[in-house]
Amino acid sequence: MSRTVPSATPSRPLPKSSGRPNQLFRNLNSKIALTPMILVAAVVFFGGTIWTVIYSFTNSRLLPRASFVGFDQYERLWASSRWIISIQNLLIYGILSLIFSLVVGFVLAALMDQKIRFESAFRTIFLYPFALSFIVTGLVWQWILNPEFGVQGIVRSLGWTSFTFDPLYNPDIVIYGILIAGLWQGTGLVMCLMLAGLRGIDEDIWKAARVDGIPMWRTYLFVVIPMMRPVFITTLVLIGSGIVKLYDLVVAQTSGGPGNASEVPAKYVYDYMFQAQNLGQGFAASTMMLLTVAIIIIPWAYLEFGGKKRG
Amino acid sequence: MRIRAFAAVLAATAALPCAAMAADLEVTHWWTSGGEAAAVKELATAFDATGNKWVDGAIAGSGSTARPIMISRITGGDPMGATQFNHGRQAEELVMSGLMRDLNDVAEKGKWKDIIKPASLLASCTYEGKIYCAPVNIHSWQWLWLSNAAFEKAGVPVPKDWNEFVAAGPKLREAGLQPLAVGGSAFQVNGLFDTLVIALGGTELYNKVYKDKDEETAAGPEMAKIFAAADDARKLAKGSNVQDWNQATNLVITGKAGGQIMGDWAQGEFQQAGQVAGKDYTCLPGLGLNQTLTTGGDAIYFPILKDEAKSKAQEVLAETIVDPKVQVAFNLKKGSVPIRSDVDLAAANDCMKKGIEIISKGSTATSTDQLVSADTQKQKEDLMSEFFANASITPKQAQERFASIIGSAD
Signal sequence: where (chain A) (predicted)? Predict the structure, then answer.
């Protein structure tokens, strides 16, 4: 890549036979030290992934066995209405959770940045849900949203007897009930990251903006946010991985119900691998999840990192 | 007690084969509801009395939560001493791949082939002529449990069969009661549906669909009637916001719901609550229509262990399970039917006696857990839970999908 730019390689001597081993043994100590890590990455992450993809073309049941059946598992997967519902749910949850946790997290951080009193107390309060596991979060929200004991019950006992709020028992909106819990849990972390980013903005920029008479919201929108690009990327990766692996929250809140209305892909994978004792089907579903992530990540990574080198 | 446990631990850690006649045996199971836990205690006490020690490995949740944990422990090289599975095909592949030990010696010594009735129980434990599990009890799904108090409140006589129950549904609603209690977890609606198939459609239809896996029958007019009945059940079940089966049973016990279709393990819950069959609640085997019960149930499987003392203890446990006294004590608490017909069950209540009578008459069928694979069961569960939760799926659409599941079933 950079080799095509002549100025980039002025100091490189003409290739000699003795030049090669030099390259290989440079920083030998650190290379040796890194070998276990490289091996682990290659075998566990890469090897495991490839193994899973290969076995998704077999009819493995409880135990993996190498009898290949072509695309059968994938055909069955895409004919299954549960899988389609899972994908739809993940899309709704993913898009909304991405938007809301970024917006809410940023707004909270911006408010926090106004040199308010008791900032650390507020920070603790907002970040606290993140210290809870998804299972605990899910159970707490299962109770809050339970029509008999939760919000609906309380409002009804206050006198509004026709008040209805039971997202977890209504197939049409159950995914939003899960979204509420997910946001409650995750927004605090986004806020903290954003706050750290905001604190990293030079005070002089604010002063310059004030001198120019730019209103605060415009400074945020057009000056500060573009400067916080790295923080946003970190946050995006964190939120994104949280979305794809969404599983325990659903298990704790609804276990996929009512019916199949709140199923998610990760749960499909688990259920078919272990409950249905059909590894092949589970592998096919997890391969589809990997493929989806790859379709989103690869073009983005190409633009992000490929673009930088060109510029 | 404590000294014995200490000695057992010492023996196990020191690996002295001669001193380790008694061993600790971890038994994993999902018997966690009130009645079930009481039954397990009977089994544990009997096993402890042999000088060994029962280490309880109860896994909360239902079988679908527990089984993956058990299987991953066995395949992952950390096998427990013994584990529960349902009769049938859940442990099939574990047996095939040689992870489970056979119990032929114990079975021959105890003449299992002669005493265990019906024979299909042992057949489900058998693979290539060897016996791999010890049946614990017989469970049947085909029971309708009714709360007498609820029907009194609604001002209708307690129904005598499913049709009367459906007819009484609106009255129960008017009285502010839940007609049919169904929990949210998928196995419940799946079992309910299979119960409708055999109770309303008859044993022949049941066998054609689940045993012969005949796609045409599954798509045919007789099954359409079953789906219409399932549609009735769906309407009656609307509004029961509970998750676990015993919570649903509790609605019936407390008179908040009219009835529940659930296996005879629900019996243990009524017993725990101190209710009397016939007075506080009514049970209708076969939903009051087709008096046939499926004989599924629980069995204990034994993974292959390296430790000799523990292997010995496994044999002792297998003998204990089949022992007549243990069978009576365990099954009375659990509300299930013993696996042998030569035991005295005078202490059984009316409902259990009804069940025992039907089974001893031989009017039985094989349970779906024995007939179809776990994979097919899961697909059915997906379909049924979707059908019951989503009123926009018509019975016809559901039947089409059901037929294609049966068509590809194994």
Answer: none
